Amino acid sequence: MSEQRSPEGGRYEDEPAQALPEYAERVLDVADLIPPGRVMTYGDVAEWLEQGGPRQVGRVMALYGGAAPWWRVVRADGVLLPGHEQRALAHYRAEGTPLKAASRAAEGHLPRIDMRRARWDGGDRAEGHT
Question: What are phi and psi of 83, to 5 degrees?
């Protein structure tokens, strides 16, 4: 029997948390903590968890992040997630995430996230985190 996934490739809201590896659950919990209009990099999430690295966090988001606010976990350079740029951009605009205007040389003329203004540090390691 195959596991059902959301159209984004992640878990469904009603999918049991026990079905996820422990590390994946921790990564998704951090993604859920990031306030609207703010972002953390893949490396920030790994550092905050004190486990794994950017690639491991990226892998978790790719496999299980569909039901989490995936657009809030980003590349360190602020470039929008390839293949998901328009959907992410809609979320950023709706949440008021600081963006930098695209240069004319930028592929597709898409803005980037203004990392200096949008980056969230986890504020006091976020309440309830252990």
Answer: 90, -15
Look up tokens 């550092």; give the residue: 47
- 20-53 per-position pLDDT tens digit: 899 999 999 999 999 999 999 999 999 999 999 9
* Residue 75: how many other CB atoms lie within 10 Å: 18
Confidence at 5, pLDDT banded by 50, 70, 90: very low
End-to-end Cα spacing for the chain: 35
Beta strands at 112-113 and 40-41: parallel, antiparallel or unpaired: unpaired
- Dihedral (Cα; 121, 24, 43, 34), 10-degree rounding: -20
In DSSP notation, 68-95 reads TTGGGEE-TT-PPPTT-HHHHHHHHHHH
